[in-house]
Amino acid sequence: GGRRMSTARCYLDPVRNRQNLHIETQALTEGLVLDGKRCTGVRYSVAGEVREARAGRAVVVSAGAFNSPQLLELSGIGQPERLRNLGIEVRHELPGVGENLRDHYVPRTRWLVGKKGITFNDRGRGLGLAHQALRYALFRQGMLAMTGAPIRAFVCSREGLEAPDLMLGWIPMLTEPSPRGPRISRQSGLTLYAHAMRPESKGQVHITVADARRPPAINFNFLSSPPDAELTVRAVRIARAIMTAPAMTPFQVSEVAPGGDRTTDDEILDWVKKAAETTYHPVGTCKMGSDPMAVVDAQLRVHGIAGLRIADASIMPTLTSGNTNAPSIMIGEKAADMVLNAAT
Length: 344
Prior knowledge:
This protein is an alpha+beta fold. The protein has helices at about 5-10, 65-75, 80-85, 120-125, 125-140, 225-245, 265-275, 325-344, and strands at about 25-35, 40-45, 50-55, 60, 75-80, 90-95, 105, 110-115, 150-155, 165-170, 175, 185, 190-195, 205, 215-220, 255, 275-280, 310. It starts with 6 loop residues before the first helix and ends with a helix.
């Protein structure tokens, strides 16, 4: 208990010594090896040395919502005009590669807590941090054992909905920026994020040069769908209503952001556009389906390319209501079953 389990620990560690498994680290995948309309391997480099791994049956790409479409485009799979403009030979036309990018866009409201000893700003700094470290070392409890947002609420933006459409999450501390990243603030408070669970805004991710070492251009296009903006404002208002409710009076709560002077929808939305950020839930850029913009089919096979599957969050046609870690693991599990079934 008290330790988050990664896929490396839970899936790779138990099988690292298998004779039929080779794990190559510090490697950069540069492209897929194609023989006509069949994928036969992967080209990658280690310390500047270019190598190839050949596949007897299939290649499974699990590079994520940014790098899976990047790899396809570098390999000549994608939108023909875009590829030709970058000097890449078109091997297969798939217009949906890199499109349909979706993510949760989250404003984080900030609140001061006047009552002492409540938040980790009081209990997780100085000697308090030493106490938290000791609690974790001895009992796997306390600040170092908790998730980022240990309290969450799934709420409805209005009456009559069959299911919640907004998510709120409480982080029991305030942080502030520093040269080495966020650090615990000296001020006691908490952070409450609020956002739409199933946003409709869609962006794109595409390469800008024919070089695997250069990151792709990412355009989230947040709030481009009007309902997303409306729901985000509503989520902030609900967060504000909870934090200013009579039950919170003993904690001496006061609003820092967006700030009590921002009361209209337009003022709140203006603050959201300045303050909100990704929750690192990108999906959809190699989406599953049978429509013209789909990249993979129901078996995760890339349309029109034999011997190639994609198994990561990029295949999700829409964004899941909550976090994407567990759904991505499920996709990997399902992909493993599909590969095994195809091999028998």
